[in-house]
Design goal:
The protein is mainly alpha-helical. The chain has a domain of 43 residues. The protein contains 4 helices and 2 strands. A two-stranded antiparallel sheet has the order 1-2.
């Protein structure tokens, strides 16, 4: 159903860094509405945003992230000036 598809796109998309532009394309809605969905999601689940921010900051400092199994995933371009490389 449409509601389930939208919820999956929002949940997984935001966790993997999808922007309002990407979400709008995925769901076939305006960027403005997609941004409202994103804002509402993070208002409802502030712990998700805090976790994502902490993970990004840790990755920038250490140059890697760790999986739940302790494996390191190195991110050599995490601090690149070029946003596309980052």
């Amino acid at each position: 159903d449409d509601q389930r598809r939208s919820a999956k796109a929002i949940n997984f998309g935001l966790i993997y860094g999808m922007s309002a532009f990407g979400l709008s394309r995925q769901l076939g809605i305006s960027r403005t509405l997609a941004q409202e969905y994103i804002d509402r999601y993070f208002e409802r689940y502030p712990g998700v945003l805090a976790y994502m921010d902490e993970t990004r900051a840790g990755a920038r400092d250490a140059g890697y992230v760790e999986t739940v199994f302790g494996r390191r995933l190195y991110l050599p371009e995490i601090n690149a000036r070029n946003m596309q490389r980052r």
